[in-house]
Structures are given as structure tokens and as C-alpha cells.
Amino acid sequence: VSGGARPTPRGDATLERLLDGAQEAFVELGYRAANIQEICARSKVGIGTFYAHFEHKRDLLRRVFVDRAVLLSRLVTPDDLLDHGRLVARLRRANDDPVAAGLLRAWYEAVLDEPEIARFHAEWRPETLTMLAATVAEAQRRAPSSGPRLDPLVVSWTMATLSRELAIHERTGAPDLETLARLFEELVFGPAVVG
Amino acid sequence: MARPPRSASRGDAALKRLLDGSVETFVELGYRAAKIREICARSKVGIGTFYTHFEHKRELLKRVFLDRAVPLSSQMTPGDLLDHGRLVARLRAALDDRLQAGLLRAWHEAVLEEPAIARLHSERRAAGLRILAATIAEAQRRSSSRGSLDPSVLAWAVATLAREIAIHDRTGAPDLETLARLFETLVFGLRLAA
Questions:
Q1: ipTM rounded to 2 decimals
Q2: Looking at beta carbons, which residues of chain A come within 8 Å of B127?
Q3: Suppose B133 and one of A71, A87, B151, B161 were both cysteines; which one would form an S-S bond, judging by CB atoms 3.0 to 4.6 Å apart?
């Protein structure tokens, strides 16, 4: 818990404004280009509010990202994997939403720029992959088996990597979300075979 | 235009040292952190040699990347996909090589920073994906079974996953044996499971 923050409704409200403004600035400008002055101006909070809660811009990004990032591991349930329409809707939410994609992009910029964020990311990513793998394993358990399946952890790494590619890189050669959902279903339940 | 070097062979030798030294520097430091002075110092050439041949650091990166990066899409053959041992060896050569992975990492850093590199990258990636899709389609034709996904979708997935392993940290990533198995499963369906 950082010192200096007033544990009053007013303190909470200014912190919320700061988090909202920071998210907006990171999404629009990216990590490096969003400076603290600009973030505070957009948030309509004084720079003192920033320093009451955070020591460095990277700590603010980490807070916003951990609280708000739209990640497959948080979004997708076993039922989604078992229902094509639901899965497509989830992927749309994770990949087509400009705020979700922008936050992810700012995060990966910071991973390259800030060793501390890179270390945090390296610890955090396995946790999210393990969560997603548990979802995959549960979906596999519920579906009638049609032979051997890929390891849930390999499936979760593959899903997370491909989904991030769609969200944050340009989409040269990338499939649409319907097709991506089909690819994910084949990874989870085993591919259909033709011919 | 560029000032001609004093003697052709001497100029060539200096350019070659600059290219070699810049590869080492980009691989070790990445794109942004590799300053022109540092590159020239490591290459044992004067800064004038740099400006004789290039206007900007991105031009130097472009030159060494186009000359020396060996993309997986152009290396992989249908025979590799049909033979697990060969596929693993191919992935190892492309993804575990320090220079190749380092060059690719520097390149992708520059893609984020330099619009000119980003444009070139997007053209090259599209071309690479077409080649890889043709390789996958040919492997499927020669096989007794294939998965139901379109070769172009598979090419995108294979290229994206391979790059993830080459340039990002490998947290949670499968080893190359398992990656090969994953690619085979997607390309050929359940043939391997049988």
C-alpha cells in the first residue's frame, strides 16, 4: 500500500480518475509517449495525486494493466470453447476492442523498455497461461473424446500468442475471428481430418 | 550521392567490416540502443564510412537484414513437414540460432519505431506467408490426410508461433519437439495420433 493516499472517498475518486485518464493516454499514445504531465492533465488530477500513489509511470501502467487488461485467460470459459458463437463473441471482445488492444500494445512497449516490467511480465504470463490451460482442460473433459489431444498448456500458449498477434500487430495475412475461433477449437478438441 | 571510397577494394573491406560489426551490435543491443558511433567503433571503421553508404541507421539495418536474415518461410520445405526429425532440425536452425534470432528481434523493434521499416515488413511478411502456404499445401497434397484449415491460415499461425519463440522470452512456450508436433497436428489433422 503506497503512503500518502487519503483513504477517503475523495482520494478513491481521484485515483479512479487517474486510472481512467492513464488508460486513455496509454491507449492513444502508447507507453513511452504518454508522459506523467499529460496523463495528469487528461485525468484532471494534480501531479501530487500521481506521486501519492505511484513512484514511476511504469507502476501506473502496471496497475492499469493488471486491473483492466482484457485477456483470454480472464475472458474465456469452458462453455465458450464448447460453443462456436460464444467463442467468436469473446474473441471479438478481446481483439477488436480498441481500448483492450491499445492497452495490450502499450504493455508490450513497456516490456521492451522497462526491465522491471519485463521481469513482472515473465512472472505473470505463466500464471495467465496456467489459468487458460485449466479452462482448456475443463472444456476437453466435458466434450466427448475423439482420440488424443494436445496438452492444455501448449494449447493455452498457442491461443494466447495468436490472439495477441491479432490484437496488437498489423493483420497482414491474419485470419478473421470466425476462422481463428475454428483454429482454437481444433487445438482444444483435436483437428478435423479431411480426405 | 555517396562519396566514392578512395579505392574500391579498401572501400569494400570497410563496408564489409561495417556490415559485420552492425550485425553483432544489433544482435547484442537491439535496434534503438545500437548507436551509429557504437556500431562504427565495434566495426573499426570511421563514422565517415557509415555516411558514405547509408543515410540513416534504419538503412543499415535494412541492408543487413535483407542480406543475412534467413526467414523460416523460405527455408521450410514440404519434406520437412512430412518428416518429424527434419522439421525439428529446421526449427532449431531457424529459432535457436543466436544471430538469426537477434537480427529478427532488432528488426521487430525497428518495425515498431520506423514507419519505412514497418511498410517493408508488411510487404515481406505477406510474401513470406504466401510461400509458406504453398509449402503447406504441397505437404498436404503428398500426405494421406490433412487438417480442415486453409493453408493460408496455417501459414499465419506457424509463422506467428515460430516468431514468438525466436524473439520473445520463452515463458510458457513449448519446446521445439512439441512445437513441431503442434504444426504437424494442425497441418495433417489426426494422422499422427493414429
A1: 0.84
A2: none
A3: B151
